[in-house]
């Protein structure tokens, strides 16, 4: 039986868990990262067709921890977000001022994973434990530990639950969750299209759910590409997934009304159920939750990963400050500060997202008219528009240092 003691024990090596390990290492904080999967599986070509919108604040974080150079060539800049009610007249355009740069960048998840693993590989402060299961978790008076499937014991001062929505660490610690199921499913696929997207992300709202087109860089053969995230009712999902490629493409074309010209499918369709979940508390004795383990939200505003990256920035800042004051990594008051900082911000973002989902999901002609009147109001109200854009760029609220420019 072997033990190896570090400061953080990060359970879950996905995008948020790995970013935490790297951000902590930049501040001289060592960690163990444990994941059931192997990096080669997580970065395999077909593993995850999803793409993520990285907000301005999250991009600052990547730049501050030294990932920007590796990522820059692969990111597609989001120059504008067009919001429309079923392609009817009266769309809103969110376009930043020239001096503000972009609204964010779109990256394939695989690209983000590769950059994170590549950076972590040469970082002595990060010990990676992949393809393994946690058999036992222990949080004691002076530290924490886990026993892995091969009887290895890993020890640290603070445990961090970062395994995503179904977090076993959170479940075992008995956190209470508020959650509801939207009874909707997101279908994800890449599209190649005839006309360039010009950096525009489209959010088209239909009564059966939002239809989002997210700009990606042209592929190696110069074809214009976007990622489609299409929300459908759970009862209709199996039918849409079973359609032939040709019939599926026809359904997409019908909803896009020719904005990008001729279309072709790129890659395979994948899908996942949508729900809302949020823990009122984010910390317990020597334990902190980050990312989807703490809050899982609707992908409508593309803010799920960005919310997790704000958790990372806040936790690292609180830990660094604690270090300066000579506090233990698991100090209860320090963790309470992290919880207070993040709980309100994440609930605000999630509440706004949830309201948007419900507002645009109300069927009928009258509700469509009301929505379009509201959208026209936002289009003409610079203060409201500015608020929405700051939210999209992740530049609102009390920002952790690592997420500032």
UniProtKB/TrEMBL annotation:
Is Membrane set as a keyword in this record? no
Q: In which pathway does it act?
A: Cofactor biosynthesis; ubiquinone biosynthesis
Q: Name one GO molecular function term.
A: FAD binding
Q: Which cofactor does it need?
A: FAD
Task: Note the Pfam families from the entry.
Answer: FAD_binding_3 (PF01494)
Q: Does the keyword Flavoprotein apply?
A: yes
Q: Which PROSITE patterns match?
A: UBIH
Alphabetical GO CC annotations of the entry are: ubiquinone biosynthesis complex
GO BP field? ubiquinone biosynthetic process
Q: Taking every annotated instance into account, which residue ranges of this chain make up the domain FAD-binding?
A: 7-342
Quote the Gene3D superfamilies the UniProt record gives.
FAD/NAD(P)-binding domain (3.50.50.60)
Alphabetically ordered keywords of this record: FAD, Flavoprotein, Monooxygenase, Oxidoreductase
Please name the SUPFAM superfamilies in this protein's record. Answer: FAD/NAD(P)-binding domain
Q: Which PANTHER family match?
A: UBIQUINONE BIOSYNTHESIS MONOOXYGENASE COQ6, MITOCHONDRIAL
Q: Which family does it belong to?
A: Belongs to the UbiH/COQ6 family.
From the Swiss-Prot or TrEMBL record, give the protein name.
2-polyprenyl-6-methoxyphenol hydroxylase
């Amino acid at each position: 039986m072997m033990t190896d003691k570090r400061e953080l024990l990060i359970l879950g090596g996905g995008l948020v868990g790995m970013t935490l390990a790297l951000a902590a290492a930049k501040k001289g904080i060592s960690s163990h990262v444990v994941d059931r999967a192997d990096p080669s599986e997580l970065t395999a070509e077909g593993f995850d067709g999803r793409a993520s919108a990285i907000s301005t604040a999250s991009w600052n974080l990547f730049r501050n921890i030294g990932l920007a150079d590796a990522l820059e060539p692969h990111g597609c800049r989001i120059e504008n977000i067009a919001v429309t009610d079923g392609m009817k007249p009266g769309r809103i355009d969110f376009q930043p001022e020239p001096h503000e740069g972009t609204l964010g960048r779109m990256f394939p998840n695989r690209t983000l994973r590769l950059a994170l693993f590549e950076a972590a590989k040469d970082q002595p402060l990060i010990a990676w434990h992949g393809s393994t299961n946690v058999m036992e978790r222990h949080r004691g008076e002076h530290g924490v530990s886990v026993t892995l499937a091969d009887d290895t014991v890993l020890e640290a001062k603070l445990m961090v639950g970062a395994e995503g929505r179904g977090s076993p660490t959170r479940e075992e610690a008995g956190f209470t969750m508020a959650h509801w199921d939207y009874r909707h499913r997101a279908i994800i696929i890449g599209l190649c299209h005839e006309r360039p997207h010009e950096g525009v992300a489209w959010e088209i709202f239909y009564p059966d759910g939002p239809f989002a087109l997210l700009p990606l860089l042209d592929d190696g053969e110069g074809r214009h590409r976007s990622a489609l995230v299409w929300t459908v009712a759970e009862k209709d999902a199996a039918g849409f997934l079973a359609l032939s490629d040709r019939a599926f493409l026809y359904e997409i074309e019908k909803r896009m009304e020719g904005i990008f010209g001729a279309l072709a499918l790129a890659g395979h369709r994948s899908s996942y159920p949508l729900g809302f979940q949020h823990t009122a508390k984010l910390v317990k004795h020597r334990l902190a939750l980050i990312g989807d383990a703490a809050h899982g939200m609707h992908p409508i505003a593309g803010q799920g990963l960005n919310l997790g990256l704000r958790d990372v920035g806040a936790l690292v800042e609180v830990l660094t400050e604690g270090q300066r004051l000579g506090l233990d990594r698991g100090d209860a008051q320090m963790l309470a500060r992290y919880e207070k900082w993040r709980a309100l911000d994440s609930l605000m973002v999630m509440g706004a997202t949830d309201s948007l989902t419900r507002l645009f999901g109300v069927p009928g002609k009258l509700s469509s008219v009301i929505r379009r009147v509201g959208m026209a109001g936002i289009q003409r109200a610079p203060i409201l528009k500015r608020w929405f854009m700051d939210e999209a760029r992740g530049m609102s609220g009390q920002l952790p240092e690592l997420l500032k420019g």
